[in-house]
Amino acid sequence: MNLIEFLKPFGIKQAPEAQIINRSYYIATNKSMLSKNPIYSGECIAHIRGPVLIPSITFLQQIGKAARRHAIVNAKGEWLFICGRDIFGKAIVEHNNPIVGDRVVILNEHKECLGYGDMVAALDTKRVVIKRLFDIGDLLRRERKTRKVRV
Amino acid sequence: MDNAGKEFFRKKYLELGGQISETKPQPSLRVNTLLTSAKELIPRLEKLGVKLERIPFTKNGYYYQSKFSLGAITECLLGYYYLQEAAAQLPVEVLDPKPTDVVLDCCAAPGGKTTQLAQQMKNQGTIAAFELKLHRIPSLLMNLERCGVTNTTAFFENVTEAKKLGIQFDKILLDAPCAGNYLTEEGWFEKRTREDIQKSSEIQRRLLTEAASLLKIGGILVYSTCSLEPEEDELNIQWAIENLPVKLEKVNLPIGEDGLTNVFGRKLNPDIALCKRFWPPKTEGFFIAKMVKL
Q1: If exposure means fewest CB atoms within 10 Å of the residue's CB, which of A34, B20, B79, B149 is most exposed?
Q2: Which CATH number is correct for A68-140, 2.30.130.10, 3.60.21.10, 3.40.50.1970, 3.90.230.10?
Q3: Under an 8 Å CB criterion, which residues of B touch A?
Q4: B222 class by beta-carbon count within 10 Å (0-12 exposed, 13-18 middle, 19+ buried)
Q5: Is the confidence at residue A148, as pLDDT, over 80?
Q6: What confidence score (pLDDT) does residue A150 get?
């Protein structure tokens, strides 16, 4: 999957021109140091994880602003979501009418993007309505997983 | 064992004018002004029930008290702050990097000071960050990403490889790997011996030599450790000013004690008093030296 394919379901048509370093995408890299085998340079925007991409935290905020569909969740929904849970209908306090099948960015009440998922049921139902695909808690889980592997 | 254990270190510290404190310093955080401001963040954390108090001797530091971990909430994941001990916030403030500087961070992981360098440089200028230990790389990358750092290029290599960049740096931060101190690690007294500290000191001298060679004339080198052992602190600095083209400058901070100039009966260069040594519990154990290249 490339950046354009990754952004398409959000309704974003343009992708930044990025450089791949160590299975991650970067923009604004330090050109003079790129030939010296860095592991990070400039602004990290996404990581290649198997067949998919996951965004960096800062790039996620840009996606959150540009995405076609969003849902704003309450504090409890926010906490559960960043712990890796799906979104229940009752946690949503505001939305812009996504329909089943839409890729939806999840915002908190400060309008910060917490991640995204796919809408799987009508928002007024009591069951899971947005299936989580990525949330910012992934950052910690990623680090912990690496620590476990080391042990 | 007569070269390890709590009693060994207690006697050692007494001889140096310090003592073992049973009180831990208050936990603290640094507001990441690359992504937010204290004006926005502090009321938000207070609303969650976190008690915060400005650390008077840092630019962006706050002591905190919280009933829940501040390491996994939204504000942390979004990079609005970095959990960083008060004394650990000082080396970068002493180095005082400017947005036009080219800076080397010699032992960068987990990235607390690298992200602070970027913050102080307003994400401008250039930072080259080196880290040798593979298991520390994920934390470094995670923190650079989380804190929105964009002026840094990081390398998974020993800083001895920094010469390949062909740069003479304006400023260098050498926050050296060290034996640590008893407040940061459970069972520290039982785990450390005189030999460990000696080994650590030898590595630090090699790093100091490397850092001095990568610094431009008139450039600034800040050396810091979170160790209370003079072998890793004052004695290394004595060695540096005797063997490297550097001279000491005053570490201008309102806290901390002057560097020791008499260590176990050995008289050191009086300039070493320009360094700062921090005995717990006001902060964790720490040492900072500032040098300029001749």
Answers
A1: A34
A2: 2.30.130.10
A3: 44, 71-72, 74, 77-79, 126, 128-129, 135, 137-142, 144-146, 148, 150, 152-156, 164-165
A4: buried
A5: no
A6: 43
